[in-house]
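Sanity check

After download, print the first record. It should look like this:
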Amino acid sequence: MKKEGKQGVYKEAGDNFHPIECEKWMTSRPIAHRGLHDETTPENSVPAFEAAIAAGISIELDVQLSKDGEAVVFHDDNVLRLTGVDRDIEKMTIEEIKALRFRGTDLQIPTFEEFLALVDGRVPILVEIKKHRKPLERIVIERLQRYGGEFAIQAFNPFVIRYVRKLDPTIACGLLSSKFEDMKLMRIKKAGIKNARLFFIAKPDFLSFEIHSFPNDRIADFREKLGLPVLAWTVKTKEELEHAKHFCDNIIFENATALKEHFARLEKNMATFEKNIAAAMKTIGEKLTPEGASGTANDRTVHGK
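Expected structure tokens:
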């Protein structure tokens, strides 16, 4: 890596910045955001994960900690949106969490261990650690060290990445970020994680950036000067896909049906980025039944992906 002086991103990276080379899956095929889910198949649920596995698509998922120290797969801080019960997940025991059901279904919230057993290495997984809780990071790393499949970790909080590196420096870690222009966050928190400002703390191996925050000169410098892969989240429309291909190496997506229809019309001489995603969406089209999960987006009420 040739450094043009010690300015800008080179200064932030420092002389000892040696990012792990990410596995090919990180940039060769799109990643299903919380599995392949739709109006009848909840996000981060077993059927959503099964649909992604059936289509051969990598899975992004969220992990949080229960009150009694179990890692569970769930995005929101509060379970109200998806279960109808107004409680914070970190204030619930695993027994209480398992008693919940996703709205309109008999489906339980899976534990991280159950998720790993389900996937069993059949597709790569991208694990987002939602909060900096050392017991949570330790549990996730311990489980992944015993896991036989391909994986990477990402987080908004740079201290999560730094602690994961301390636990296991061989794991590829990504820093999530955004311009956060339309997201409701405390001003001090937004200032800290906006536009990967705390890169120097995390020193990640890749970046995951919100789709509507492109173009971004700072993220472009990390990609072009430091060679870091950049993912875009969360791509849901053909317009967002067209936008993403100019600025990133891969996408984290929802709404697979709409995207698949767009990919079917791409020309034969399309770029590698488009070819990889088109191939994946063709697989989805072939393997998903009309009743299967199509990946349309659930409305979000909290910040994050």
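If your output differs, re-run the checksum step. Summary of this record's structure: The beta strands are 31-33, 58-65, 71-73, 125-129, 151-155, 173-177, 206-210, 230-235, 250-253.
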